[in-house]
Structure prediction request, 164 residues.
Amino acid sequence: MAIGTVLLSLLTSVPVRAEGPTLGQPAPPFTLADLGGKSLRLEEFRGKKAVVVNFWATWCVPCRDEMPTLERLWQERQGSLEVLGVSVDVGDPERVKSFVRAVGVTFPILLDPEGKAGRPYRIRALPTSFVIDRSGVLRSREIGYRDWTSSETRYFSDEALRPR
Prediction:
């Protein structure tokens, strides 16, 4: 079975609202393991930092291209903004670890091979990113490649950092 078919079946196997999470509403919670096996909960950042949740895979060329721009964003704003890379790769996590080392990504990478986090977010294309403000509310959904260092895209993270 092709990787894309596996991904699609994982992401569509549980019925959820067709439109996915609603902007302006709380982000769906999730808990996933990082590359070291430690569990990380999205809720840990509520009230502390805005969060960019980026769903991606090592086999996705636009995802690979986007990673360095997410790293630069995180390096510049890690005191107020968290970046969480959610890998939907199925199989050996060593492939994800190798990719992360090769690209020099230092923000947290979480593993979601079964689509537990991806289903409630209705991931249908990669990369897909969500910007969540400090209070845990979804502020933006970005589908496809983004240069997270561009002024247009920085607007989304600036909005999430704005006090409400």
The chain is about 30% helix and 20% strand. The chain has one domain: 31-161. Residues 1-18 have pLDDT under 50 and may be disordered. The radius of gyration is 15 Å.
